User: Which sequence fits this backbone?
Protein backbone atom coordinates (compact mmCIF):
# COMPACT_ATOMS: atom_id res chain seq x y z
CA UNK A 1 0.00 0.00 0.00
CA UNK A 2 1.29 3.43 -0.88
CA UNK A 3 -0.10 6.90 -1.36
CA UNK A 4 -0.64 8.13 -4.90
CA UNK A 5 0.02 11.62 -6.22
CA UNK A 6 -0.71 13.26 -9.54
CA UNK A 7 2.79 13.03 -10.98
CA UNK A 8 1.89 9.68 -12.55
CA UNK A 9 -1.74 10.42 -13.45
CA UNK A 10 -2.50 9.85 -17.12
CA UNK A 11 -5.35 11.38 -19.13
CA UNK A 12 -5.94 10.62 -22.80
CA UNK A 13 -8.60 12.58 -24.66
CA UNK A 14 -9.46 11.27 -28.14
CA UNK A 15 -6.23 9.20 -27.98
CA UNK A 16 -4.07 12.31 -27.33
CA UNK A 17 -2.09 12.29 -24.08
CA UNK A 18 -3.05 15.53 -22.32
CA UNK A 19 -1.37 14.60 -19.03
CA UNK A 20 1.71 16.77 -19.41
CA UNK A 21 -0.48 19.89 -19.74
CA UNK A 22 -2.89 19.01 -16.93
CA UNK A 23 -2.74 20.59 -13.49
CA UNK A 24 -6.05 19.37 -12.02
CA UNK A 25 -8.70 16.74 -12.59
CA UNK A 26 -11.89 15.41 -11.04
CA UNK A 27 -13.55 12.10 -11.78
CA UNK A 28 -16.93 11.90 -10.14
CA UNK A 29 -19.42 9.03 -10.08
CA UNK A 30 -22.74 10.31 -8.81
CA UNK A 31 -25.63 7.87 -9.28
CA UNK A 32 -29.20 9.04 -9.15
CA UNK A 33 -30.69 8.45 -5.73
CA UNK A 34 -34.43 8.16 -5.47
CA UNK A 35 -36.59 8.44 -2.40
CA UNK A 36 -39.07 5.65 -1.82
CA UNK A 37 -40.08 6.55 1.72
CA UNK A 38 -43.57 5.38 2.63
CA UNK A 39 -45.92 6.41 5.43
CA UNK A 40 -45.36 5.61 9.07
CA UNK A 41 -41.55 5.71 9.13
CA UNK A 42 -39.05 7.93 10.94
CA UNK A 43 -36.18 7.56 8.48
CA UNK A 44 -36.15 8.39 4.80
CA UNK A 45 -35.57 5.49 2.45
CA UNK A 46 -33.32 5.91 -0.57
CA UNK A 47 -32.17 3.65 -3.34
CA UNK A 48 -29.46 4.05 -5.93
CA UNK A 49 -30.76 4.55 -9.44
CA UNK A 50 -28.91 5.00 -12.69
CA UNK A 51 -25.18 5.36 -12.53
CA UNK A 52 -23.80 8.66 -13.84
CA UNK A 53 -20.33 10.07 -14.03
CA UNK A 54 -18.55 13.26 -14.95
CA UNK A 55 -14.93 14.06 -15.62
CA UNK A 56 -13.17 17.40 -15.67
CA UNK A 57 -9.62 18.48 -16.36
CA UNK A 58 -7.78 21.76 -16.40
CA UNK A 59 -4.26 22.80 -17.18
CA UNK A 60 -1.80 25.20 -18.68
CA UNK A 61 -2.28 26.77 -22.09
CA UNK A 62 0.27 25.39 -24.56
CA UNK A 63 0.41 26.82 -28.06
CA UNK A 64 1.20 23.48 -29.75
CA UNK A 65 -1.30 22.27 -32.34
CA UNK A 66 -1.68 18.88 -30.68
CA UNK A 67 -1.86 20.30 -27.16
CA UNK A 68 -4.81 21.76 -25.34
CA UNK A 69 -6.45 24.12 -25.88
CA UNK A 70 -6.04 24.06 -29.68
CA UNK A 71 -6.76 20.35 -30.06
CA UNK A 72 -9.54 20.58 -27.51
CA UNK A 73 -11.33 23.40 -29.32
CA UNK A 74 -11.85 21.04 -32.26
CA UNK A 75 -13.78 18.70 -29.96
CA UNK A 76 -16.42 21.15 -28.72
CA UNK A 77 -19.87 19.61 -28.91
CA UNK A 78 -18.63 16.13 -29.75
CA UNK A 79 -18.39 12.85 -27.90
CA UNK A 80 -14.85 11.64 -27.32
CA UNK A 81 -13.04 8.63 -25.92
CA UNK A 82 -11.28 9.21 -22.59
CA UNK A 83 -8.82 6.95 -20.83
CA UNK A 84 -8.06 7.91 -17.26
CA UNK A 85 -5.33 6.17 -15.23
CA UNK A 86 -5.05 7.70 -11.74
CA UNK A 87 -2.07 5.54 -10.75
CA UNK A 88 -0.18 5.81 -14.02
CA UNK A 89 0.12 3.44 -16.93
CA UNK A 90 2.37 0.70 -15.58
CA UNK A 91 1.16 -2.85 -16.07
CA UNK A 92 -1.58 -3.77 -13.63
CA UNK A 93 -2.51 -0.21 -12.70
CA UNK A 94 -6.21 0.70 -12.91
CA UNK A 95 -7.57 2.15 -16.11
CA UNK A 96 -10.98 3.72 -16.62
CA UNK A 97 -12.24 4.05 -20.16
CA UNK A 98 -15.39 5.79 -21.30
CA UNK A 99 -17.02 7.93 -23.92
CA UNK A 100 -18.02 11.40 -22.85
CA UNK A 101 -19.75 14.44 -24.24
CA UNK A 102 -17.56 17.53 -24.24
CA UNK A 103 -19.36 20.10 -22.12
CA UNK A 104 -18.43 23.35 -20.44
CA UNK A 105 -15.09 24.70 -21.57
CA UNK A 106 -13.25 27.81 -20.51
CA UNK A 107 -9.97 29.63 -20.85
CA UNK A 108 -8.83 31.94 -18.11
CA UNK A 109 -5.89 33.91 -16.92
CA UNK A 110 -4.74 36.52 -14.52
CA UNK A 111 -1.78 38.78 -14.09
CA UNK A 112 1.46 37.09 -13.00
CA UNK A 113 0.47 33.56 -14.00
CA UNK A 114 0.26 31.23 -16.97
CA UNK A 115 -2.94 31.17 -19.01
CA UNK A 116 -5.17 28.22 -18.15
CA UNK A 117 -8.04 26.19 -19.61
CA UNK A 118 -10.51 23.69 -18.22
CA UNK A 119 -13.10 21.34 -19.65
CA UNK A 120 -15.98 19.29 -18.26
CA UNK A 121 -17.09 15.97 -19.72
CA UNK A 122 -20.29 14.04 -19.07
CA UNK A 123 -19.93 10.31 -19.43
CA UNK A 124 -22.08 8.65 -22.08
CA UNK A 125 -23.10 5.12 -20.99
CA UNK A 126 -20.72 2.95 -18.99
CA UNK A 127 -17.32 3.50 -17.43
CA UNK A 128 -15.18 0.44 -18.07
CA UNK A 129 -12.91 -0.22 -15.13
CA UNK A 130 -9.93 -2.31 -16.12
CA UNK A 131 -6.18 -2.44 -15.77
CA UNK A 132 -3.25 -1.44 -17.93
CA UNK B 1 15.81 16.31 -21.23
CA UNK B 2 16.14 20.03 -20.54
CA UNK B 3 18.76 21.40 -18.17
CA UNK B 4 19.13 24.88 -16.75
CA UNK B 5 22.21 25.36 -18.93
CA UNK B 6 20.00 24.78 -22.00
CA UNK B 7 17.60 27.47 -20.76
CA UNK B 8 20.41 29.88 -19.85
CA UNK B 9 21.95 29.47 -23.29
CA UNK B 10 18.65 30.44 -24.89
CA UNK B 11 18.24 33.49 -22.65
CA UNK B 12 21.77 34.44 -23.60
CA UNK B 13 20.91 34.17 -27.28
CA UNK B 14 17.92 36.46 -26.77
CA UNK B 15 20.00 39.01 -24.84
CA UNK B 16 22.59 39.08 -27.61
CA UNK B 17 19.98 40.74 -29.82
CA UNK B 18 20.61 43.92 -27.78
CA UNK B 19 23.25 45.85 -29.69
CA UNK B 20 26.40 46.59 -27.70
CA UNK B 21 25.55 44.32 -24.75
CA UNK B 22 28.12 41.61 -24.03
CA UNK B 23 26.64 38.31 -22.92
CA UNK B 24 29.32 35.85 -21.83
CA UNK B 25 28.70 32.11 -21.72
CA UNK B 26 26.71 30.81 -18.73
CA UNK B 27 29.16 30.39 -15.83
CA UNK B 28 31.61 32.97 -17.19
CA UNK B 29 31.61 36.16 -15.11
CA UNK B 30 34.72 37.76 -16.55
CA UNK B 31 33.56 40.51 -18.88
CA UNK B 32 33.70 44.26 -19.39
CA UNK B 33 30.60 46.43 -18.99
CA UNK B 34 28.07 46.65 -20.34
CA UNK B 35 27.45 42.95 -19.94
CA UNK B 36 24.76 40.61 -18.69
CA UNK B 37 25.25 37.24 -17.07
CA UNK B 38 22.64 34.65 -16.21
CA UNK B 39 22.92 33.45 -12.62
CA UNK B 40 21.75 30.17 -11.13
CA UNK B 41 18.02 29.92 -10.38
CA UNK B 42 16.68 30.37 -6.87
CA UNK B 43 14.96 26.99 -7.13
CA UNK B 44 13.82 24.31 -9.53
CA UNK B 45 10.26 23.41 -8.65
CA UNK B 46 9.21 20.07 -10.09
CA UNK B 47 5.82 18.92 -11.35
CA UNK B 48 4.05 22.04 -12.53
CA UNK B 49 1.84 19.57 -14.46
CA UNK B 50 1.07 15.86 -14.34
CA UNK B 51 3.32 13.12 -15.67
CA UNK B 52 6.52 15.20 -15.42
CA UNK B 53 5.21 17.61 -18.00
CA UNK B 54 6.72 20.90 -16.86
CA UNK B 55 9.09 22.15 -14.19
CA UNK B 56 9.57 25.75 -13.12
CA UNK B 57 12.81 27.57 -12.51
CA UNK B 58 11.80 30.33 -10.15
CA UNK B 59 13.50 33.71 -9.82
CA UNK B 60 16.25 33.17 -12.35
CA UNK B 61 18.46 36.23 -12.03
CA UNK B 62 20.13 38.10 -14.84
CA UNK B 63 22.80 40.50 -13.65
CA UNK B 64 23.43 43.43 -15.97
CA UNK B 65 26.44 45.60 -15.24
CA UNK B 66 26.94 49.09 -16.63
CA UNK B 67 30.16 51.07 -16.33
CA UNK B 68 29.57 53.59 -13.53
CA UNK B 69 32.43 56.01 -14.21
CA UNK B 70 29.87 58.55 -15.31
CA UNK B 71 26.89 58.21 -12.98
CA UNK B 72 24.65 60.24 -15.22
CA UNK B 73 25.42 58.16 -18.29
CA UNK B 74 25.11 54.95 -16.28
CA UNK B 75 21.72 55.96 -14.94
CA UNK B 76 20.49 56.84 -18.42
CA UNK B 77 21.72 53.49 -19.78
CA UNK B 78 20.16 51.63 -16.83
CA UNK B 79 16.82 53.21 -17.63
CA UNK B 80 16.99 51.95 -21.20
CA UNK B 81 17.98 48.39 -20.21
CA UNK B 82 15.30 48.24 -17.52
CA UNK B 83 12.53 49.76 -19.62
CA UNK B 84 9.64 47.50 -20.57
CA UNK B 85 10.12 48.23 -24.25
CA UNK B 86 12.71 49.64 -26.60
CA UNK B 87 15.86 48.59 -28.42
CA UNK B 88 17.88 48.16 -25.21
CA UNK B 89 15.11 46.64 -23.11
CA UNK B 90 16.06 43.28 -21.56
CA UNK B 91 12.44 42.36 -21.00
CA UNK B 92 11.51 43.20 -24.57
CA UNK B 93 14.51 41.33 -26.02
CA UNK B 94 13.54 38.15 -24.20
CA UNK B 95 9.82 38.43 -24.84
CA UNK B 96 10.26 39.36 -28.49
CA UNK B 97 12.59 36.41 -28.99
CA UNK B 98 9.97 34.20 -27.35
CA UNK B 99 7.42 35.33 -29.91
CA UNK B 100 9.78 34.97 -32.83
CA UNK B 101 11.81 32.89 -33.56
CA UNK B 102 10.89 31.25 -30.25
CA UNK B 103 12.77 29.15 -27.74
CA UNK B 104 13.21 25.39 -27.84
CA UNK B 105 14.32 24.39 -24.34
CA UNK B 106 12.25 27.11 -22.69
CA UNK B 107 8.50 26.62 -22.82
CA UNK B 108 7.74 29.96 -21.24
CA UNK B 109 9.76 32.75 -19.71
CA UNK B 110 8.56 35.91 -18.07
CA UNK B 111 10.81 38.67 -16.81
CA UNK B 112 9.10 39.71 -13.61
CA UNK B 113 11.12 42.56 -12.15
CA UNK B 114 14.27 44.65 -12.21
CA UNK B 115 16.14 45.82 -9.11
CA UNK B 116 18.73 48.59 -9.12
CA UNK B 117 22.09 48.77 -7.33
CA UNK B 118 23.82 51.98 -8.45
CA UNK B 119 26.90 51.70 -6.22
CA UNK B 120 27.79 48.06 -6.79
CA UNK B 121 31.13 46.49 -7.60
CA UNK B 122 31.62 43.55 -9.91
CA UNK B 123 35.04 42.11 -9.23
CA UNK B 124 37.10 45.28 -8.91
CA UNK B 125 34.89 47.32 -11.25
CA UNK B 126 32.55 50.04 -10.03
CA UNK B 127 29.27 49.35 -11.80
CA UNK B 128 25.61 50.25 -11.94
CA UNK B 129 24.08 46.82 -11.40
CA UNK B 130 20.58 45.78 -12.42
CA UNK B 131 19.29 42.40 -11.30
CA UNK B 132 16.44 41.15 -13.46
CA UNK B 133 14.32 38.25 -12.21
CA UNK B 134 12.56 35.80 -14.48
CA UNK B 135 10.40 32.70 -14.15
CA UNK B 136 11.10 29.92 -16.62
CA UNK B 137 8.91 26.93 -17.38
CA UNK B 138 10.61 24.07 -19.18
CA UNK B 139 9.92 20.45 -19.99
CA UNK B 140 10.46 17.91 -17.22
CA UNK B 141 10.34 15.03 -19.70
CA UNK B 142 13.04 13.10 -21.52
Assistant:
Amino acid sequence: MAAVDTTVCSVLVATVDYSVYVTSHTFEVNPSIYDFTGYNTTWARNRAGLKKATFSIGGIYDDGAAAPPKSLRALWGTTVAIVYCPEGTATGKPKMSFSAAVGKYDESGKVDDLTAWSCDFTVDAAVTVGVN
Amino acid sequence: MTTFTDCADEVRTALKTITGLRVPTFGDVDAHPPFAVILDPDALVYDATYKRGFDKYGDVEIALCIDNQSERAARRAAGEYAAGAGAKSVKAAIHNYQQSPGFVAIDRIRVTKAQFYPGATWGSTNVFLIIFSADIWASGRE
